[in-house]
Specification:
Strand content: 15-25%
Number of helices: 5
Radius of gyration: 14 Å
Order of helices and strands: HHEEEHEHEH
Strand order of the largest sheet: 2-3-5
Helix content: 40-55%
Largest sheet: 3 strands, mixed
Shape: globular
Distance between the termini: 21 Å
Structural class: alpha+beta
Oligomer: single chain
Length: about 130
């Protein structure tokens, strides 16, 4: 789904909580999220040094962040079932947070993984 530049830039400029809400709605609606992948998944760190796994609501936003330390990474789709049933448990087990909807100038929101899962499942229940 191609997005016009005005909407793209407007979403990039939203504060983290607004981008998080957008992410949850789009993830539930499209049943997918996006990560960056090369010879493994892109990872980052919080200001406190905690590992984070960045997630985006669409290919375009992931592509916008595929520079600097993620140069050479490409967007890769993660279906929602895999996110909820495989990835979130793996992140929990490895003490890795999710960085929801980072931008080139913001690290994104790092919700508790249980909260992220609850929010997505709630949104799914609203639209099913």
């Amino acid at each position: 789904m191609a997005m016009n530049e005005k909407k793209f830039n407007a979403l990039l400029n939203q504060l983290g909580p607004k981008r998080y809400s957008h992410f949850v709605k789009v993830a539930a609606d499209l049943r997918q999220v996006w990560g960056l992948h090369s010879e493994g998944w892109a990872l980052a760190a919080t200001n406190e040094g905690d590992k984070v796994f960045p997630l985006w609501p669409s290919r375009e936003f992931a592509e916008a962040c595929a520079d600097r330390e993620w140069s050479g990474y490409v967007p890769k789709e993660i279906d929602l079932t895999t996110l909820l049933d495989v990835l979130i448990p793996k992140l929990r087990a490895s003490a890795t947070l999710a960085a929801v909807f980072p931008t080139p100038s913001d690290k994104g929101v790092t919700p508790d993984l249980s909260q992220l899962e609850t929010d997505i499942r709630f949104e799914l229940s609203r639209i099913e």
